[in-house]
Amino acid sequence: MERIIELLNEKNHYLEKFYALNETELINFSRDSFDNLENFYRTREKILEIIKYLDSELNRAHTQSVDVAKASSEHKRTAREALAVKDEYVTRIIEQDIEVLTHIEAAKNGIIRELQDLRKNRKAISGYKSPMFEQRLDEEA
Q1: Cα–Cα–Cα angle for 57, 60, 63, nearest 5°?
Q2: 32: alpha, beta or left, given left = phi > 0 and alpha = psi -120 to 50?
Q3: Are the C-beta atoms of residues 14 and 82 closer than 8 Å to each other?
Q4: pLDDT tens profile 91-125
Q5: Where are the alpha helices (DSSP H) in 31-130?
Q6: CA of 91: how far to CAs of 3, 81, 88, 116, 135, in Å?
Q7: b/e sequence 23-56, b meaning 16+ C-beta within 10 Å
Q8: C or N: which end of the chain has fewer Cβ atoms within 10 Å?
Q9: Treating both helix axes as pointing N-terminal to C-terminal, what angle do 2-30 and 37-64 enclose, rounded to 10 degrees?
Q10: DSSP letters of 90-102?
C-alpha cells in the first residue's frame, strides 16, 4: 500500500507541474503571445507521458498489492487524500484546457479575419490595375 501512496503522490506532483505550466502559458495567451506554443505542447506531452507511466505503475502495484482491504486506516486515509488532490487537479486542468482552446480559437479566428481582409484589399487594389481602368484613364487624359 505504501508503494501505491508513493505513486499517487508522484502523480499529483506531475499534475501540479502540468497545472503550473498551463497557468504560465495562459498568461502569455491573454497577452496574445503565442511564441511558446510549440514548446508548451511539447512539455505538456512529456508530462502526460510521465503520468501515463505512473498510471501503469499504479495498476501494477495495485494488482501486486497483498490486499488493499487489509491496509491500515492511516494508509487508506492517505490514499483517499491523494485521490482527492488528483481529482481537484484534473478538474482545474480541464477548466484550463477549455481556456487554452478558447484563446487559441480566438487567435485563429483573428488570423482568418486578417487574411480575408487582406484578400479583399488585394482584389480592390487589383481593380485599379486592371487594363480597363488604365485604358479609361488614358482616354480621359
Answers
A1: 150
A2: left
A3: no
A4: 999 999 999 999 989 988 988 988 887 887 776 66
A5: 37-64, 73-128
A6: 25, 15, 5, 38, 67
A7: eebbeebeeeeeeeeeebeeebeeeeebbeebee
A8: C
A9: 170
A10: HHHHHHHHHHHHH
pLDDT surpassing 60 at residue 140 = no
The type of residue at 140 is E
The HSE-up count of residue 87 (CA atoms within 13 Å, CB side) is 6
Identity of the amino acid at 44: R
> Are the C-beta atoms of 35 and 113 separated by less than 8 Å?
no
Q: Which residue's entry shows cell 487574411?
A: 115
